[in-house]
Design brief:
The active site is at residues 139, 155. This protein is of the alpha+beta class. The protein is 26% helix and 23% strand. The chain has helices spanning 2-22, 26-29, 97-105, 160-167, 209-223, 229-238, 289-299, and strands at 43-48, 53-58, 61-67, 69-71, 80-89, 93-94, 113-114, 125-129, 137-139, 149-152, 156-157, 175-179, 183-187, 193-197, 244-245, 260-261.
Length: 300
């Protein structure tokens, strides 16, 4: 009898251990997420540019969050819907003419091709999204201190370990959504409403602003909970990317469990800010044709 109880206890402990391994890390669970319609089946990557964060969803559930570096003001990462179109390991970087000119202006040695290795700005892997002519992709870096931030020529940099983890997880055809949401509304597991506001790095008109007041008023009516307007005003003014509970009695409240985006923008057809033109935004390209062929053989 005692042996059966001990076996049952060990089984419960084993289940708890498995659950702990499968649980979303606390830092990721408490990261505010943009309001984007997520694919219910399969993998879906969501990049929110003002936040400099990449969200990986599996079957509609958040699996992981990566810090990233995205395009600078003059070389913006374009928004839109894309697919993963290639995974290339140990890529060579064929330097665009525009970046060669930039090297020359800055008094740096002009490079045309950077071979695989520790000095390659693409790092150990390049995960292309969109058509090849766009030259867009998620990749590693030889400058890990630049992540997160707004530093690239349009591509999306990850720290090398994260880039490899991403490449080992995604496949060709997986969905990619690049969003530009500076205002995030999320609910925690206690039902409290959190507002997070980011800087408008690309100086775009924010199409969500006219809907914010109506959304907050509707939430108040539905939940019969008064929101703290001064906290809303402060968050919009400071734009420091810190989640603020606008429904909690205490201004120092902590997030309870995971944050989930409030569906307020995904239900609307909002005008989107225009990306920079190709002339304004030279982008770091993927591997050359020969490298693509070799990488395609490796990745299947």
């Amino acid at each position: 009898m005692q042996s059966n109880r001990m076996s049952a206890a060990r089984a419960r402990l084993a289940l708890l251990a498995v659950a702990a391994c499968l649980a979303l890390p606390a830092a990721a669970a408490e990261t505010p997420a943009p309001d984007v319609q997520i694919s219910a089946a399969g993998r879906h990557l969501v990049l929110n540019l003002p936040q400099a964060r990449l969200f990986l969803y599996q079957d509609g559930k958040l699996d992981r969050v990566f810090p990233v570096a995205v395009g600078k003001m003059l070389t913006q990462t374009p928004i839109g819907s894309f697919d993963i179109t290639g995974i290339y390991r140990d890529p060579s970087w064929h330097v665009p003419k525009s970046i060669q000119d930039e090297m020359k202006r800055n008094g740096k040695p002009v490079q045309t091709v950077v071979p695989p290795g520790p000095d390659n700005p693409l790092g150990p892997v390049f995960v292309r999204f969109g058509e090849s002519k766009l030259g867009l992709g998620f990749h590693g870096t030889n400058a890990p201190a630049s992540v997160p931030g707004f530093r690239s020529h349009g591509c999306v940099r990850l720290r090398n370990d994260d880039a490899l983890a991403l490449a080992n997880t995604v496949s060709r055809g997986d969905a990619v959504t690049v969003a530009y949401q500076t205002i995030l509304l999320n609910e925690d597991e206690a039902g409290q409403l959190w507002l997070t506001v980011y800087r408008n790095h690309y100086k775009q008109d924010d199409p969500s602003m006219p809907y914010l007041a109506d959304t907050l008023l509707a939430w108040q009516r539905q939940h019969q909970i008064a929101l703290y307007g001064q906290r809303v005003d402060n968050a919009l003014k400071q734009r420091n990317g810190t989640p603020v509970c606008i429904s909690c009695k205490s201004a120092k409240a902590q997030v309870s469990g995971a944050l989930s985006p409030l569906p307020w923008l995904s239900r609307m057809s909002l005008p989107q800010p225009l990306p920079a033109t190709d002339e304004q935004a030279p982008r770091e390209p993927g591997p050359p044709v020969s490298q693509r062929a070799r990488a395609a053989h490796r990745t299947g």
